[in-house]
Amino acid sequence: MSSPDLNRLHTHDLELGTTEVVQKHATRNVVPPRRVSQRRLDFEHARPRWLRECIAEATGVFMYVLPGIGAIASFTFNATNPIGSTAFGSLFSIGFAFALGIAFAIITCAPTSGGHFSPAVTIALCVWQGFPLKKVPHYIFSQLLGGFIAALVLMGIYHQQIVEMKEALLAAGEPLVANGAPASILCSFPNPNQTMGYVFLTEFFCDCFVSLIIWACLDPANPFVSPAIAPLVIGLAYGAMAWGFGANTLSMNTARDLGPRVVAAIFFGSEAFTYKNYAPIGILASIPAMLVATAFYELVMKDSLNIIETGHAVHEDGDEALVRHITRTTTVDEKH
């Protein structure tokens, strides 16, 4: 029930019962935001743009990698416990952790840096969208740093379990670097019976699939993907590939693989880079896959005239050249 005191304090809308709400209009009083001071504006203006972008890229990769490898850790440590493995980890939960981590990273950090979070994306944007070449090394270094820090944080969080698992494996004479071993929490390793050609093809096609989805989401003429839903769509693309092909060894991102792989080498030995000669596939395959997939989209799917019509681009030679193109193509279409 409301009272004069509640009305006076402007909190009555929190105390109304269901019947009272439907019988009369309840006014919600919103506290106005704090005014922005000149000191705040001066501070924000003084921040180096390049540094903000680099920190945002590192933060985004951290936000996406940490939940994913955390889910892998939970799955790995509970794999021998039938009840625990069901409750705390599965390939499905790992895919969801990466998918939601990517979505959260884009939502949080993309307004500052553009939300690349992958060297392959940065390189593709440089090739096709005019992203400045001088920024590419800064972005890639920041992305690798974000993955490296995420792996270090996970090693700290799961230190006790990792030490116990490591001691048990060493006592049993089993390796620390293999699929299912503690090093595989941080980065991917192939199954013992897999050939590297097979692993490369799986990685390549899965990366192409995700790259097509990313490029479709970035296409301003695509009527089916709004900016608000794009983070979730991109995240689910990663999740779909993890659910479908994660058991066949996937990395799908140089930053997700190389940064944590360095941490794996620090804690579990250099075999993290030499095991079955897989490391180059996990580290590098996403880059050519991204370039092939985006080339396919640019050459086959993209409609630049639609992008111009929606106001997201202009003709490089001006409006007169655009009019000449429309007149010429319209005349040709009418003749046919």
From TrEMBL:
Major site of localization recorded for this protein: membrane
Domain of life (superkingdom): Eukaryota
Pfam families (alphabetical): MIP
Transport keyword on record: yes
GO molecular function term, any single one: water channel activity
Keywords: Membrane, Transmembrane, Transmembrane helix, Transport
Subcellular localization, as worded in the UniProt entry: Membrane
InterPro entries: Aquaporin-like (IPR023271), MIP (IPR000425), MIP/Aquaporin (IPR050363)
GO cellular component terms given for this protein: plasma membrane
Gene3D superfamilies: Glycerol uptake facilitator protein (1.20.1080.10)
Membrane topology: Multi-pass membrane protein
Membrane spanning stretches: 54-75, 87-107, 114-131, 137-158, 198-218, 224-246, 281-300
Family: Belongs to the MIP/aquaporin (TC 1.A.8) family.
Protein's name in the database: MFS permease
